[in-house]
Amino acid sequence: MKALANALPALLILLLAACASQEQRQPVASRTGVDFSGSWSLDYGQSDNIQVRLNGLVRELQREAERRAQAAGSERRGPGAALMVGGSSTDSGASIIGLAQMADLVTKSQLLDIEQNPRQIRVRREGDFALDCDFHDGRPTVVETPLGSEFCGWDGHQLLFVLALPEGLSIRHRLTLGPAGQMLNIATTVSSDRVSYPFTLNRVYRRMDPEAHGFSCEQTLTRGKVCTTETP
Question: Of the ranges 57-61, 135-139, 171-175, which is most confident?
């Protein structure tokens, strides 16, 4: 398996193409009282700092490596036993950085436009493919694609989108609406069989007026209303 960091551009291009071509999405049961619809803008101050999260993951992996070394009676108790940048073993520096890079790439959208009704939900993300779910008879199913499988469904009041990709990769988006309905948290977790722990980034969005200064919106035939950040 090539280093995850080197495979990111090609993988994301294939993922975008596959997801854009999917006409039918996961059927899930609707949940009354949870309405994500509206326009949302990323709140950088409330969202996770990727470097802080990466440092936390590295520290946890170092502690785990030391625990394993102690259990095995090894004299090599330092982090170098497990975190060798450029190495090919599990928890190598390249694999860890690649996991964080993947999480950063799939969570860069500054604007969201969400349409929801009793039958379906569509999460349009600026600069990325939309996340779609159809609400049917409460029987979630898995859609198989050339790249793996897609799943979406309700977990209580939270909505899940899961992409299972080749070579042990998976991406999970968990959407949670704040108590007042003005804040939306999307916890994105990227997992790989090359890293012992998953990497999670929380992106927090606030409701916004899409016509406000700083945003440009247009109505399209194929994608409905699309809002983007204006270029200075």
Answer: 171-175
Name the nearest CA neighbour of 60 among 34, 6, 96: 96
Angstrom distance (rounded) from CA 173 to CA 187: 6
Residue 170, amino acid: S
Specify the DSSP class assigned to residue 210: T
Instruction: Look up tokens 């071509």; give the residue.
Output: 21
For 197-216, the pLDDT digits (tens) are: 999 999 999 999 877 656 66
Closest by Cα among 182, 179, 201 to 190: 201
Strand ranges (E), the chain: 26-28, 38-42, 111-116, 120-125, 131-135, 143-145, 148-155, 158-164, 170-177, 183-191, 199-207, 215-220, 224-229
* Burial class of residue 82 in the structure, from the number of CB atoms within 10 Å of its CB (0-12 exposed, 13-18 middle, 19+ buried): buried
**Residues belonging to the chain:** 232
